[in-house]
Amino acid sequence: DFLCLIDDVRRANQCELNVVMDLTISLDGTWKKRGHQSLYGIVFLIEAESGYCLDFETVSKRCELCEGKKRTLTTIQFERWYTTHQSTCSKTWDGTSGGMEKEGARKIFERSLEKGLRYKHMISDGDSSAYESVKLTYIKKLLKGFTLSNTLNNDLYSDFIDENANESNLSQLSPEQYEANVVIKEDCINHVKKRVSTHLKTLKNRHSGFEKPIEENLASVIGTAKDSEVTNDESSDSNQQSPSEDDTNISLLAASTRRVVTRRRRRRRLADGKMYGGGVGRMTKLMEHKLADSYGIAIRQSSAIVKSTAVVLLDLITKSHFFVDLDQDQAVLTMQRYCRAAFLHNIKQSDRELQHACCPTGFDSWCSYQRDKHVSPSQRTDHVKNTKRLDAVFLDILTPMIESLTDPSLLRRCLRGMTQNANESINSVVWSILSKAKYHGYQSVRGAAAISSIFFNRGRSGLVKFFHQAGIPITENLLDALLEKDWKRIEKAKNHVQRSEAIRQRKDQQRIQAQIEADEEMDYGSGLF
């Protein structure tokens, strides 16, 4: 079925059969067991434009047959048996569970040219090393000296990877050859948005909590006590105490000094003398969510602007399928300005113009400060909203995070606004077939992955072709049952979309009504006019 889907993708892109087609793909791994102790993992590859799952790889750390033979055979007998079993052994990975995604990605990329495909752009989640394992896949093939025709007709294609490829080998390629064959990474914007919460969690741990006790106070107090004890001994011989009384006094003194140190322990405070979290002007859970959401919206809006600009240019210039390469540097600067506005807008500054310099201007701007420039003084609201923003001390604290999240190299990977939602969807299909709470072997996991790819690409009716190939008779009742399941799934999806749209419209109406009520409150006030 994958070959049929590849033919569909070729026809959609008007690509000839004898030409290697460059694709943008999304790759993600999922594990049988929660945590990092899973014995089985699955890596799915989905083509970004069509949404088809074109390949998958099941990675296993266990072979049930090998374990059974080890219990019944001697070491020599097992080694002799394993030579015939090795080619069909279920154990395909000896590393950690976290490395399964990297191994699966490597195998999928290695066999891509056999299908006449080259996965040029890879959408990743940024929390795995899968990209680094496939970045130079096609360059290593080029260095190996294989031609395209040899690659497509060679059954031993999996041996082309040269593990010893290094910087000296790469220097043999021209910049054009390197750019044409290197795999380009793109980031899932949903995962990039999560980086805001990660940064803020780190800052919270660093700037909140208690200060470390000042240990030198304990030593200074003990030293002062000893000096006073010696002075008392020299001044009065008549008041000497027994050794037991001295030990008791020293222990009491040590206990009292410990209490002194404990009393001096206090909460961390920022440069303005206030704590990191708290009420108005401080970092709260609500503000953390607001910063993360604003950053995510900024990326989506700016990427949408880039896409809409591309469509306009395409319409005006050629009226055809010719691809117009936009100025990426200008697009990155636009996205950077949007993202900086998402953060700086919510931090107070003495210079209000500098605070809102990156915010969009105009009467319809989402920024209340820029919008207030186009309304009468009685309708201005930014002076009220500004009191709820973060105090100026947070500018220095959040600046490293802002610089990191608005780095051009990161934003360049987010220009197209791609996500891994399709991968998350097919992952859920797998574990709806096989429960993570129960044990299943390698064959069950691999079978579930194959069935999930069919369901994801064609729906339940996709099983008809599988049944036909397997020699299973297709009755009218079976066909009706499959079509009914697909119909129910589509209706459920439509209802979900309608509910989401209704919720969105209701929130928009509530927001407009709240703005109207706020404007009406300004029409009356003691001494206002």
Quick structural overview:
With 529 residues, the chain is of the alpha/beta class. Among the domains are: 2-135 and 183-188 and 420-457, no CATH class; 286-412, no CATH class; 475-520.
Please explain how this structure is put together.
By secondary structure, the protein is of the alpha/beta class. Among the domains are: 2-135 and 183-188 and 420-457, no CATH class; 286-412, no CATH class; 475-520. It has 23 helices and five strands. It is globular. Residues 146-164 and 311-325 have low confidence and may be disordered. Residues 225-253 are annotated as: Disordered. This is Mutator-like transposase domain-containing protein. InterPro entries: Mutator_transp_dom.
Strand content: 5-15%
> What's the tally of helices?
23
As a whole number of angstroms, the C-alpha radius of gyration is 33 Å
Number of strands: 5
Helix content: 55-70%
Average pLDDT, all residues: 82
Shape: globular
Which series of helices and strands comes N to C?
HEEEHHHEHHHHHEHHHHHHHHHHHHHH
Largest sheet: 5 strands, mixed
The strand order across the widest sheet is 3-2-1-4-5
Unreliable sequence segments: 146-164, 311-325
Distance between the termini: 75 Å
Return the structural class.
alpha/beta
Domain Mutator-like transposase: 17-136
Protein name: Mutator-like transposase domain-containing protein
Region (Disordered): 225-253
